[in-house]
Structure to design on (290 residues):
């Protein structure tokens, strides 16, 4: 056999060995593709119809699985932006976020619902839920557990919640939400009044009598019938006395005697040790519960 220069002829041993490799690679590729289709699972968040998706979210909510409920509600709202299931899902999403420790998200959701559906049949609950979210933000369960006096801190959230519950009563006075709102407002009124007493006492101990007087007056004007109105009168009487306004001090004392004849301020005047305000501590948690 004559061989041309520069050309080589594959040997009989090597030529057939290349064919099985390509066949093997093609078979593997086909097998992997088939397995991928076989094991691929459909995401229920993308395939379930609206009724089934709402049922899944509702079941998770009832079971206390707020993370799962939140995911399903959010995806339902994204996939089905209109309809009764979506409207109800927005309300339940706000509740799930609230219970899941996401107050900012919950407030955003419920506020969006109120703006979008102002005439919804569950609008009273939406306003109540908004107030409840702020109520829980301002009254931490951890504070209650360890006995921290939360009235020593800023009360902006409690003020907001107080105003929110007042809005529920104003808009929906004949609903069951108004009944609970009134009870929570009594509790909040006492907490807010207690905060004012704390501040007034701070001023009083530092002989800032004008500041103490203004705080006590603010309490009586803003939170009437609170559990701390007698304490406010006592602070007013002492502040007026220290400012040399004896007539006004006597007026405050007279009102205090009429409303609370057993108040500690009336029994010992101004003790030299500890201060009369120590007789009022802990400003009774019993009183704060209204």
């Amino acid at each position: 056999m004559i061989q041309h220069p520069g050309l080589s002829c594959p040997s009989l041993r090597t030529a057939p060995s290349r064919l099985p490799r390509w066949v093997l690679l093609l078979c593997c590729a086909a097998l992997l593709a088939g397995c991928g289709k076989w094991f691929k699972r459909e995401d229920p968040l993308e395939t379930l119809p609206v009724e089934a998706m709402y049922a899944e979210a509702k079941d998770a909510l009832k079971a206390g699985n707020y993370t799962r409920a939140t995911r399903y509600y959010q995806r339902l709202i994204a996939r089905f932006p209109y309809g009764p299931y979506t409207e109800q899902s927005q309300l339940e999403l706000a509740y799930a976020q609230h219970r899941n420790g996401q107050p900012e998200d919950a407030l955003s959701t419920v506020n969006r619902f109120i703006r979008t559906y102002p005439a919804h049949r569950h609008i009273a609950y939406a306003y109540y839920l908004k107030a409840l979210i702020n109520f829980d933000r301002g009254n931490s369960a951890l504070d209650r557990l360890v006995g921290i006096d939360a009235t020593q801190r800023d009360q902006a959230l409690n003020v907001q919640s107080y105003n929110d519950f007042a809005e529920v009563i104003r808009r929906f006075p004949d609903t069951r939400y108004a009944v609970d709102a009134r009870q929570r407002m009594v509790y909040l009124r006492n907490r807010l009044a207690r905060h004012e007493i704390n501040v007034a006492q701070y001023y009083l101990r530092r002989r800032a009598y004008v500041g103490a007087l203004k705080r006590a007056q603010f309490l009586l004007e803003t939170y009437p019938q609170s559990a701390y109105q007698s304490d406010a009168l006592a602070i007013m009487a002492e502040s007026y006395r220290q400012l040399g306004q004896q007539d006004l001090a006597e007026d405050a004392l007279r009102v205090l005697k009429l409303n609370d004849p057993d108040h500690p301020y009336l029994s010992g005047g101004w003790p030299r040790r500890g201060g009369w305000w120590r007789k009022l501590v802990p400003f009774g948690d019993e009183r704060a519960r209204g």
Q: What stands out?
A: The CA atoms of residues 237 and 254 lie 9 Å apart. The two ends are 115 Å apart (CA to CA).
